[in-house]
């Protein structure tokens, strides 16, 4: 009984003709069962690291015509790792079933028989369910003895284990893991199917009420449900929503349901459906665009239908291009300004693209409408994204209020529905966002508490469903955030490890969907963070390699969408990182060229959005970098001019929000730059004056957060420099 033995079949299904219905159902369920990575623990009798349970031999269907039944039966049994015995009074009286069990035991595989009770009772003269070969042990000579077997069977009846647990028990026996693990997975999939089917049902009902589809017979309805579920499953794997942005499972289900049900009445829906089945998203998107435009022209008095058409277009467009998705949701809002889903997605996509004004308008409207409707989920989503928006603007007080509200809602929902993956994920994400706020204020202790809370939930969800890209992406974000705190705590080796884990996950997601802009950007950010940690560790060559990879991705994305401010900002940051490494290696001209590229990008961003704090801070950094190279090239007067421009921006930012510790430190850094420039000209007094200003700022930060090792190190640096100049 070698687990490494190769079998043609994973199992042989033995049953009575009268139990054909159950045999079909179990056969179909086993062959469709996907074994995820979490359940692959060891070499098994069906092969090492099995990915599926195929093929399962089903007697009466899998025999070839014209051959000996007995010989084929023996060959199939010899080629099967397990025998699944469907037990009922009919099976107990079937000589055919009895011989199959006996043959399997004679092969020495009696412990690999998996009995499943369909009907009847063990040891009952009237309704015995086990055939004799199952009830009694087999002797060494292959004959039945009078000694009874100890039989542990699954019971598929509602009064027994039920369908889900029975399937879990069969799978667990075959792959050698605990039943509870398989049952938990099956239960998650069941809930997910119920959620998706509920959405499908609502959409079909709405379409039918509006006269948009014909009535379906039960069989057609079942086919429709299966078709929709298959497509949702297919595109949930590659959707940017699973990575970051533009299409949720709910939106995708809504859109695909409308396409599938519309295929019966409109050839263009039918062509769009075929395109989706073939993986041609852009073709489907173009057909839906034409249909949405026609609907918009035709239904002046039915604007909600036009909004729905564009909203569904946005869901499909979001599978490939966030910009086109954003435009589709904007059109939806033209026809129905109160469409909650369109408000959320257009608001968030605008936020990601750097258009804070549009994002704020849509998200505030969403918050207002959701409160009126008593829509807790809508209120949560509005607070979550408004918190991000406020943080981008540098208003940490407002950001904290929004994120606290979002976290309170998420905590209550997660507690009320512990088995709901989406609600648990909401809590993980909101914990991450709260951690971001505390990190920005310099309270890395609280930041770490929330990051680890989110990480714990995220790890559990990701480990339970390793094939879910959205959950894997969530895990990568929390690993990155924890890495940020570890850097602040001066635990660089641990930070590198955390960043590497994050980068590995994101590299896999990016490879899974090369055209998914969100996942490509995620990979770029992860490479940048890893480069930072490697730089701090002193591994400059590896840091430069990581930065260059990040820059290549940023350049590609920025070129693809020149109007996306977020992509342009990413390019500016990536260029700066590579410039830093080139400057360290003495390639000052190359570094200066990249710094100026970053500065020019940021100047344009700030010109377009003067109140965007993120853009302003990035511009101040670019001015500092340019000044640093000019100072090294002994062009001190030009360097001071660049530092002056950075100083004006940073003073303005700090004045707008005294609680932002990151900006406070930025201001201290610029004073250190002035000190170096003054010192190079021999002006020791002005150099000391600048250092004292920087020291006072850092001293206040250390007093506020004594556990921040990076700030303590900064404070010691200022003290040492001042001492050197005075002596």
Number of domains: 4
> Tally of extended strands?
9
Tally of helical segments? 31
- Helix percentage: over 70%
**CA-CA gap between termini:** 82 Å
What is the average per-residue confidence, as pLDDT, rounded to a whole number?
85
Largest sheet, described in full?
5 strands, parallel
CATH class annotation of the largest domain: Alpha Beta
Overview of the structural elements:
This protein folds into 4 domains: 169 residues, Toll/interleukin-1 receptor homology (TIR) domain (Rossmann fold); 158 residues, no CATH class; 86 residues, Methane Monooxygenase Hydroxylase, Chain G, domain 1 (Up-down Bundle), CATH 1.20.58; 145 residues, Tetratricopeptide repeat domain (Serine Threonine Protein Phosphatase 5, Tetratricopeptide repeat), CATH 1.25.40.10. Helix 27 packs antiparallel against helix 28. Strand 2 and strand 3 form a beta hairpin. 51% of the residues are buried. It is elongated, with a radius of gyration of 32 Å. The chain is mainly alpha-helical and 727 residues long. The protein has a 5-stranded parallel β-sheet with strand order 4-1-5-6-9, with helices on both faces. Strands 2-3 form a two-stranded antiparallel ribbon. Helix content is 72%, strand content 5%. About 4% of the residues have low confidence. The chain has 31 helices and 9 strands.
Could you name the key traits of this structure?
727 residues, mainly alpha, Rossmann fold, Methane Monooxygenase Hydroxylase, Chain G, domain 1, 4 domains, 5-stranded parallel β-sheet, two-stranded antiparallel ribbon, 5% strand
